[in-house]
């Protein structure tokens, strides 16, 4: 559940929804764009879950909490900066363009890092599923809302409060990792 909420919040103002919204508006096929994004997020988060399953047995409980704190802090810092516009994919259809954008923008993204961190702390499978559902739901809001909603969600008024909440959660996780709380 935590991965779902955190990834939903991160993807609301991220470049992936912006790119998919542009592809959906250009082609007039929002369903195909959403399907491409969901598939790309599923692949990226499955890789994050697999990585989490590999490293979780090697980490102590404090190291797991610190890994989560690092992911939350990184997501907060990434949310404080304005995203650059994604490159347009004019030759591809809505599905293929959104899939390509999702794979390009999703690998190493802050929501994938969060999925891995939540997977290390709990079940990697459920963390990957939650991150995929949360990211897909956020992209659905952006795609179905159109370019106007995508522009409003990228504004400082949306990005900074989300980043603040993620930063506070990261600080709390770090304090817990160091056994200060």
Number of beta strands: 0
Number of helices: 8
Mean pLDDT: 89
Helix content: over 70%
Order of helices and strands: HHHHHHHH
Rg over alpha carbons = 16 Å
Question: Structural class from helices and strands?
Answer: mainly alpha
Low-confidence stretches: none
- Please give the largest β-sheet: none
Q: Work out the strand percent.
A: under 5%
Describe the structure.
The chain is mostly helical and 181 residues long. The chain is 81% helix and 0% strand. The protein is built from 8 helices and no strands. α3 (30-55) runs parallel beside α5 (94-106) and α4 packs antiparallel against α6 (110-121). The protein is globular. The model has no long low-confidence stretch (mean pLDDT 89).
């Amino acid at each position: 559940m935590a991965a779902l909420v955190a990834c939903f919040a991160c993807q609301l103002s991220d470049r992936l929804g912006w790119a998919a919204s542009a592809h959906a508006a250009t082609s007039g096929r929002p369903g195909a764009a959403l399907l491409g994004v969901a598939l790309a997020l599923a692949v990226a988060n499955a890789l994050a879950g697999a990585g989490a399953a590999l490293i979780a047995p090697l980490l102590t409980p404090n190291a797991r909490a610190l890994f989560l704190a690092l992911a939350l802090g990184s997501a907060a810092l990434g949310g404080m900066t304005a995203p650059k516009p994604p490159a347009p994919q004019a030759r591809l259809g809505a599905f293929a363009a959104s899939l390509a954008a999702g794979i390009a923008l999703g690998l190493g993204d802050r929501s994938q890092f969060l999925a891995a961190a939540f997977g290390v702390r709990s079940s990697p499978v459920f963390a990957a599923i939650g991150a995929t559902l949360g990211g897909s739901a956020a992209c659905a809001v952006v795609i179905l809302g159109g370019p106007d909603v995508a522009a409003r969600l990228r504004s400082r008024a949306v990005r900074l409060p989300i980043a603040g909440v993620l930063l506070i959660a990261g600080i709390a996780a770090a304090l817990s990792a160091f056994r200060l709380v």
